[in-house]
Design a protein that fits this description.
alpha+beta; 5-stranded antiparallel sheet; 4-stranded antiparallel sheet; globular
Amino acid sequence: MRLFAAVLPPSERLDELGHVVDRLHHLPGADGLRWTSRPGWHLTLAFMGEVDDGLLPELRVRLARAAHRTPPFPLRLHGGGHFGRRALWTGVAGGLDELRLLAERADAAARRAGVPMEEHRRYQAHLTLARARADAVDLHPFLDGLAGFEGTRWEVGELALVRSNLPVSGVRGEQPRYERVDGWPLEGAG
């Protein structure tokens, strides 16, 4: 299974973001972007890639432990940014230290369970909204459209394990489908 650990914002918070993103779809150049779908919006904590089924029991135990040790914390979706000229995203504000710690714990849990992880990089919290089809897309109008966005605060209370089902139809523009496989409450017991 192709897996990642994530924070899944509540649907009400995603609806707030959706109203802003709907307006972005009407800007010049929007057709040069591949927009991510709302059902798949998430904050990735640790991307694991293909995980052998035999590692799942230990991975679940270790992710549960990471969640058990982490207290709930506040977040809100906020503003926008980009990676290079290719990826447009919205950021988060609030309990960023706690979010980074949860990401580090999820990464460590996967490594200790035997999942071969990519090289460790500093965690950059973001929710991907779109990817450019080519470098020619000017992202500035989209960044301007996201600049004033301030979502309503919510309490992060769960670490989720999510399966990424890659497109198989070959249809241009088809999106991966994400499926919540498991989740553990944040408890702050350590």
